[in-house]
Amino acid sequence: MCWQCDHPGATRQDYLDVLHGTVAKNGWAVQYVETEPPFAYTIGLSDAGLPELLVTALPPGQSMRLLNVVADYMVRKTEPAPGDTMTFPSDPAVEFVAVTAPDAHMGWAVAFHGGPIRGLQVAWRDEHGHSPWCPDFNQGGPRQPVLGVREPLGP
């Protein structure tokens, strides 16, 4: 269930207050959206001058783990650029894509920041290493919507 569903008498400001508490404690929050396909995004990174992160078509636990790992890396090390890739010891690599219209998908992040934000999608590869641009991507599984234009690959 979502927070708003569990608190039917609450206002948008009540939820923003909850988000402010989470961001103050952890540096960012993760919002999971149960649509088809589902997606998740960070809230609070914009206040640190970083893009908010977004991932599509993964279950809640996997989405939160991935976004938290990448957000922690961005806060501690460096901001990935669109077209950059990141590898993980136990998971397939990801590629970063600038989100074309972050306000269309990351409403709570926009409300939290109080204005326009930048978004960076964490586009994951399937268990065979296929990216969402590959026709063989995740055969038999869900497709991964990409909410921006892929950067050209380097030389």
UniProtKB/TrEMBL annotation:
Under InterPro entries, the record lists: DUF4262 (IPR025358)
Q: Which Pfam families match?
A: DUF4262
Write out the ranges of the annotated region (Disordered): 133-155
Q: In terms of domain of life, where is this protein from?
A: Bacteria
Stated name of the protein: DUF4262 domain-containing protein
Q: Which organism is it from?
A: Mycolicibacterium diernhoferi
